[in-house]
């Protein structure tokens, strides 16, 4: 299925978001928060920490500061 065909079956607001997400310029792509705002505002935002525990642990470990070896 071609992209244009797939976009035609989506509601126009969803189609616009999908098109923006597929931009060849990374800076032109919406952030996750912008996508949620566009599609549903506050009602679409997950409450609290919505990540599964294992994924939250991996993200936390990835974001931990590293200690430089001497």
Topology, element by element:
Elements: H1 3-8, H2 12-21, H3 32-40, H4 53-63
Average pLDDT, rounded to a whole number, is: 81
Number of domains: 1
Strand content of the residues, in percent? Answer: under 5%
In angstroms, what separates the terminal alpha carbons? 55 Å
Instruction: Estimate percent helicity.
Output: 40-55%
Q: Identify low-pLDDT runs.
A: none
Structural class: mainly alpha
What is the 3D shape?
Answer: elongated
Largest β-sheet summary: none
Individual helix count: 4
3D structure, described in words:
This protein has 70 residues and is mainly α. The protein has one domain (3-63). It contains 4 helices and no strands. It has helices spanning 3-8, 12-21, 32-40, 53-63. The longest helix has 11 residues, at 53-63. It is elongated and about 55 Å long. The N and C termini lie far apart (55 Å).
Task: Sum this structure up briefly.
About 50% of the residues lie in helices and about 0% in strands.
Key phrases:
single chain; about 70 residues; mainly alpha; 4 helices; about 0% strand
């Amino acid at each position: 299925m071609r992209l244009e065909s797939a976009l035609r079956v989506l509601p126009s607001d969803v189609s616009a978001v999908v098109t923006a997400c597929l931009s060849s310029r990374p800076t032109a792509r919406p952030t996750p928060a912008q996508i949620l705002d566009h599609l549903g505002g506050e009602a679409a935002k997950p409450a609290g920490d919505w990540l599964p525990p294992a994924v939250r642990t991996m993200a936390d470990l990835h974001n931990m500061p590293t200690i430089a070896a001497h």
